[in-house]
């Protein structure tokens, strides 16, 4: 508290931190006016990424100023190039930010995360008009003065247009196939209430478990809450989609069915489940499937992750029991504590797969005491850099990271045991 932060270049510094500058289509456009500032560029990613501020307050849900920015960019670009581009082609892959200073701002929520519709000042124009006029004038002037940036922007828009038209045909066929599959979708065991049921108080508890194979999905399906918990079963290891275009989402039947189950083809407005939970075995294959699914969501639906909808299901690694008591343990440390508590050589079971856990037991792990690990992106995280590092070419840097951090289960157990012995030794010395 009381610590001061200073950014010399304002929103330009923010976007530099949020993007991989080497992969940008053109240098970040940074425009400033009286009580208004914006920054804009196009990256090599799917979806749009925006940051908005009012009087220094980060408005995570945007509001009038952000809506006006999106609208103004589309309108200005169309007029500059004198072509009626589709709005989605202009905004595809945009990373942008806007900051405004206004007197007595009105927010739509108590947390001040969404700006309402107000004027820019006591006698000033409406926020929407003010932002539109600023963007139209400044962005248009910038593009006229910087022809290289304008050319790069045009190429990015035309690429998005080609990609959209390229998948139009297969998209129609895939959607028809998905509609037919939804009637008898063996992959999806749906629930009764969904996140888009706006009048339902339980909507925020709606959950979709993504499982590997029929064995794991069987345990969850039998023990789930049918009102709020749905299950989508993968065939096995999904396709590694890193570096592929969104066309693969429609060509790959499994990805397309998952997209339709979530209802996120056109954005998150109609998302059917508040929590999407990746549920895999606690082994190497399970970790690989988890990584491939994380790649899928980060590559094609990054907003789903940014808005906190993606989780990893934590299930117990061990069951320690005697005739009187059963304890489920999620780590070696918890297992040792359970063995110490029960004493007399209790029975220890190591769960390697979700299918090994009976439906009766599983019900306790996905009920009120469910353990979920949220997938959170740190403020400075660049999704493109993240995917390039972990899913790109096998670089010497990644090889060295694996060598330095690789541990097998035996090593972990030995390390834990050594740590425990050290602690005991320290106690004895004291």
How would you characterize this protein structure?
The chain has 430 residues and is of the alpha/beta class. It folds into two domains: 11-163, Ribosomal Protein S5, domain 2, CATH 3.30.230; 185-315 and 351-392, Rossmann fold (3-Layer(aba) Sandwich), CATH 3.40.50.670. Helices cover 45% and strands 16% of the residues. The protein has 15 helices and 14 strands. The chain has helices spanning 11-18, 64-81, 87-91, 127-145, 147-183, 213-223, 247-251, 253-262, 284-300, 302-306, 332-342, 359-365, 383-391, 396-405, 409-429, and strands at 29-33, 36-42, 49-54, 57-58, 94-100, 188-189, 207-212, 229-234, 275-279, 310-314, 318-321, 326-329, 347-350, 371-374. The strands form three sheets. A six-stranded mixed sheet has the order 6-8-7-9-10-14. Strand 11 and strand 12 (326-329) form a beta hairpin. Helix 5 crosses helix 8 and helix 6 crosses helix 12 (359-365). The longest helix has 37 residues, at 147-183. It is elongated, with a radius of gyration of 26 Å. It starts with 10 loop residues before the first helix and ends with a helix.
């Amino acid at each position: 508290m009381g610590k001061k932060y200073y950014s010399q270049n304002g929103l330009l510094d923010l976007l530099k931190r949020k993007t991989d500058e080497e992969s940008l289509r053109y240098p970040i456009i940074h425009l400033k006016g009286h009580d208004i500032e914006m920054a804009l560029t196009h990256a090599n990613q799917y979806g749009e990424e925006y940051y908005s501020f009012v009087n220094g307050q980060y408005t995570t849900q945007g509001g009038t100023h952000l809506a006006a920015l999106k609208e103004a960019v589309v309108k200005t670009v169309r007029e500059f190039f004198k072509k009626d581009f589709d709005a989605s082609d202009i905004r595809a892959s945009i990373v942008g930010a806007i900051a405004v200073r206004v007197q007595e701002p009105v927010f739509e929520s108590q947390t001040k995360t969404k700006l309402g519709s107000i004027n820019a000042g006591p006698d000033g124009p409406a926020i929407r008009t003010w932002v539109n006029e600023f963007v139209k004038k400044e962005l248009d002037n910038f593009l006229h003065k910087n022809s290289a940036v304008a050319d790069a922007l045009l190429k990015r828009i035309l690429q998005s247009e080609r990609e959209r038209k390229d998948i139009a045909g297969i998209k129609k066929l895939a959607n028809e196939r998905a509609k037919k599959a939804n009637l008898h979708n063996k992959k999806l065991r749906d629930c009764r209430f969904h996140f888009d049921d706006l009048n339902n108080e339980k909507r925020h508890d709606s959950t979709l478990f993504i499982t590997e194979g029929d064995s794991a999905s069987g345990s969850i399906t039998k023990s789930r809450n049918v009102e709020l918990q749905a299950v989508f079963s993968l065939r096995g290891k999904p396709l590694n989609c890193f570096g592929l275009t969104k066309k693969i989402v429609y060509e790959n039947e499994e990805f397309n069915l998952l997209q339709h189950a979530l209802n996120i083809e056109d954005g998150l407005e109609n998302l059917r489940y508040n929590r999407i939970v990746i549920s895999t075995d606690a082994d190497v294959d399970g970790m690989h499937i988890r990584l491939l699914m994380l790649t899928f969501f980060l590559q094609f639906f990054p907003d789903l992750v940014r808005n906190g909808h993606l989780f990893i299901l934590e299930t117990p690694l061990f069951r320690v029991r005697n005739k009187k008591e059963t304890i489920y343990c999620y780590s070696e440390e918890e297992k040792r504590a359970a063995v110490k508590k029960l004493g007399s050589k209790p029975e220890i079971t190591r769960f390697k797969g979700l299918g090994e856990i009976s439906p009766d037991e599983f019900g306790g792990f996905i009920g009120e005491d469910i353990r979920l690990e949220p997938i959170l992106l740190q403020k400075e995280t660049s999704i493109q850099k993240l995917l390039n590092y972990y899913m790109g070419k096998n670089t010497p840097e990644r090889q060295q990271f694996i060598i330095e951090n690789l541990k097998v289960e035996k090593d972990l157990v030995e390390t834990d045991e050594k740590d425990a012995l050290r602690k005991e030794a320290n106690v004895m010395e004291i």
